[in-house]
Amino acid sequence: MTHPIRALEEQDEPALLRDQFRQLLRYRALLAVGVIVGLLGGGYLALSGADTYTATGVVLVRSATADPFATGASADKGINIGSERQTAASDTVGELAADALAKDADPVDAGDLLAGLQVTNPPNTLTLRFSYTGATPEQARSRAEALADAYLEHRRQRTEDSIENMAEGYRAQLKPLEEKRDLLEDQVGASEADDVSSARANLIVSISELSRKISELRALDSTPGYLNQKPVAPREPTGAGLPMLLGLGGVVGLALGLLLSWVRLVFDPSVRSTRELVRALGAPVLGTLPRERGAPDSLLAIGRGGSRLAEEYRAVAFRLAYDPSFTESRRLLVTAPRGDNAAAAGAAANLAAAFAEMGRDVLLVEADLRTPSLARELGSAAYEARPPRWAADDNGTWPSGSRSNVDVPGSGAFTLVAGRRVDNVPRALTSAPVGRIVAEADRPGTVVIVLAPPVLAYADAVALVDRVAGVMIVCDPREVHRSDVERIREIISASGGSVLGVLLHPGRGRLGSKDRKKSPRRRSGPAARTDGPDPDDPAITGDPTETLGLRAFDASAGRR
């Protein structure tokens, strides 16, 4: 049965991503914590922060020009809009605006004033957008307008200073030329020589050129720009607001929860997915038991009606019946990795009932000799059966005198060899009577199912693997560790057996925890009791049908 494993390994990339996403969703508590933290943070920012208001003014920047209405005149000559944006946010503009605001009874430091200013430049334009964020609408409006006016005033002064400096340079060049011209005029009056007249004419031309340049500079339009859009007092506060902050907080919290889930997944020792479990065991998943609401009324799901749990057990039995590895020996060892063995006991009993429905002669052997409980859990469904002839000489020791028949209403019956506490468990499991019981599977139409304690808690299952080669592991994938799965495969392979498959069952949840608190706990660890009866055992206190939170059903109508 290796083709399911190959199919899992050949999954495409979307299937792997879905698998990883499902693994993250296993930690719903961390996701919920992340979302709650994000919502609380967004709500705190929205409620604790003071309302702010933003006013915006738009300034058109232009350069000085002699005739703005002339053909081909352009207002963007020599303008570097990036440099102008930096100038608008400079300390010089801030000081000018602070001085203007001080006159209007709004004293503010230049540094604090510039802290609320944001100057942007829309693409492919010569405009600057002055946005100021203040505590009140009027403060935002007045300070945005003061900063825009201060920038225009600073640029106007800078343009006029440049014009005045250039004119002063032309006048400095003009003064010696005029003095020389006056000197030549005196010489021309005394003697009119040709060379003197020529020099005088050249000086007049130079003086005229300089005078023309000075006149052009004085005629320049030094307007630095226009305030196209005056700042207006905003009516509503700016910022994200409560709904948007809550939404952003939820998104950030979800991202935080996913991060925490990923970290938890990385350091989680349990099996991350069914695909990883199948690869580690080298065996396919035979089935996944559904979660039933409420405590079950009986250990046997088969015989109680067409429930989903019973149908899943039947599907597992049919799958085993057509497995070549199982049909060759018709022996099955059912065990759990470690911890509670209740799920394995339920799987063994229901598989025995399913094979009985198929018309097989089923023998269920309870090899848990430390905490036997199948006879008590089945209750009135089990009644005494005649032991085989070879058991007459064994003085009633286990497993000779422990046979009983178990009715499956409407489906038949199977034989149960109930467990019994013994002084030497390894000797009892490796005794000749156990070998003769397992050998009954050699008869045509006979199936032997052995329920063993958890394989990692005791060596009992290992002692039986050489007689029952096929092993089925019953586990909760969220509780078994990766190292445990690999160790189980190594132990079974080294003992000469093989894992036929794994049966997955859901966790007991809160209801199961309550049931375990109300009922005696099965112990399957090294500290399990091996001597004497348990005084709290329901079988001793007077209720033999109530154990582990399970009540055996009344099968008197179907008893043979």
TrEMBL record:
Residues 515-524 have a biased composition (Basic residues). Residues 505-560 are annotated as: Disordered. Keywords: Membrane, Transmembrane, Transmembrane helix. SUPFAM superfamilies: P-loop containing nucleoside triphosphate hydrolases. InterPro entries: Bact_polysacc_biosynth/exp, P-loop_NTPase. The chain crosses the membrane at residues 27-47. This is Lipopolysaccharide biosynthesis protein. It comes from Streptomyces finlayi.
